[in-house]
Amino acid sequence: MIYFTRGMISMQKQYWLFKSEPQTFSIQDLMAAPHQKTLWEGVRNFQANRMMLTMQVGDLGFFYHSSCKTPGIVGVVRVCRAAIPDPSAMDPSSPYFDQRSSQAQPRFWCVQVELESIFPKIIALSELRANPHLQGMRLLARGSRLSITPVTSQEWLMIDKMA
DNA sequence: GCCAACGTTGGC
DNA sequence: GCCAACGTTGGC
């Protein structure tokens, strides 16, 4: 799928998966947030964090609930603001505070996302694992712990059909 | 630049 | 709560 930004540059839309522990921030919390938007703060793994730098406004992501009774995908978010320095890294009162971050030299970034949809029922991790078309999915890779992973367009369409 | 120790993630 | 897997730190 091709789309246009700023009237000039055409780019491929990218797809992502955002993990969150529902006890910390659930998709219901996002629904209740002002304008149903949130900064995706607190990602402190460099590999995962760097992915936010490559995100573009309009990119779509699955919202994944982790570390809970039934881990799985619960809905879709849309990137509505490109990466900015993660304010929580510069906030001493935040649990995500990072001593080595500064405005001049940010180490961590965050995009803003808005709620796109909540699935009528969760697509459980076990269902994803059981789907032969998703065997190569980054989320399912052995030992995968990244809180943000890329999703291919084929995987996106397949999972969207499962919803 | 290696690598052991340590901390964290996250499914089960 | 266990534990495998992985990332980060810091001594050398």
Strand order of the largest sheet: 4-7-6-5-3-8
Low-confidence stretches: none
What average pLDDT do the residues reach?
91
What's the number of extended β-strand segments? 8
Structural class: alpha+beta
Note the overall shape. Answer: globular
Radius of gyration based on Cα positions = 16 Å
Number of helices in the DSSP assignment: 4
**H and E order:** EEEHEHEEEHEH
Helix content estimate: 10-25%
Give a short account of the largest sheet. Answer: 6 strands, mixed
Q: What is the terminal-to-terminal distance?
A: 21 Å
Describe this structure in words.
With 163 residues, this protein is of the alpha+beta class. 18% of the residues lie in helices and 35% in strands. It contains 4 helices and 8 strands. The longest helix is centred in the C-terminal third of the chain and has 10 residues. The radius of gyration is 16 Å and the shape is globular. The model has no long low-confidence stretch (mean pLDDT 91). The structure holds a DNA duplex (12 and 12 nucleotides).
Short synopsis of the structure:
The strands form two sheets. The chain has a six-stranded mixed sheet. A two-stranded antiparallel sheet has the order 1-2. It has four helices and eight strands; from the N terminus they run E-E-E-H-E-H-E-E-E-H-E-H. The chain has 163 residues and is α+β, with helices and mostly antiparallel strands.
